[in-house]
Structures are given as structure tokens and as C-alpha cells.
Amino acid sequence: MYTTFYLIGIGLFVGVAAWFLFIWAVKSGQFDDTEAPKYRMLDDDDEQAKPAKPTKPVNKNSP
Predict the structure, then answer these.
(1) Which segments in the chain show pLDDT lower than 70?
(2) What are the extents of the domains in the chain?
(3) Secondary structure letter of residue 47 according to DSSP
(4) Do residues 12 and 5 make contact, with C-beta atoms less than 8 angstroms apart?
(5) pLDDT at 40
(6) C-alpha atoms less than 13 angstroms from C-alpha of 62 in its C-beta half-sphere
(7) What is d(CA 47, CA 61) in angstroms, rounded to the nearest whole number?
(8) Could you tell me which residues come within 8 angstroms of residue 25 by beta carbon, excluding any fewer than 6 positions away?
(9) pTM as predicted
(10) Nearest 5°: CA angle at 28, between 23 and 31?
């Protein structure tokens, strides 16, 4: 009977330790994608380039 409680305690300890290690790894950037940024420039943009705003015509008759 004591062995069951002992194994449950060890199991909970290992589970909580694994959870804390996972949280630490996520916060420290271990799962960041390092491959995608170099391929991002090859992606086609769906947006078309916006045309430049027309400038006001210069009135040569003004002082």
C-alpha cells in the first residue's frame, strides 16, 4: 500500500518537473522557428502595390 503512494508521489513530481521544464523552454525561445524568416522574402505578396498620390500641379502664375 505504501508503495502505491510512493509511486504516485514520484509520478506527480516527475510530471510537475516536466511541465516546468516545458514552460521554461517555451519562454527561453527553444521552440522559435529559425528557418521561416529566410524563406519569407520568397513568398508572393497578395496585395498590389499602392499607387503614389498625385501631387498638386504647380501654378506658375502665382507670385
Answers:
(1) 45-52, 54, 57-63
(2) 1-28
(3) S
(4) no
(5) 80
(6) 3
(7) 41
(8) 31
(9) 0.53
(10) 80
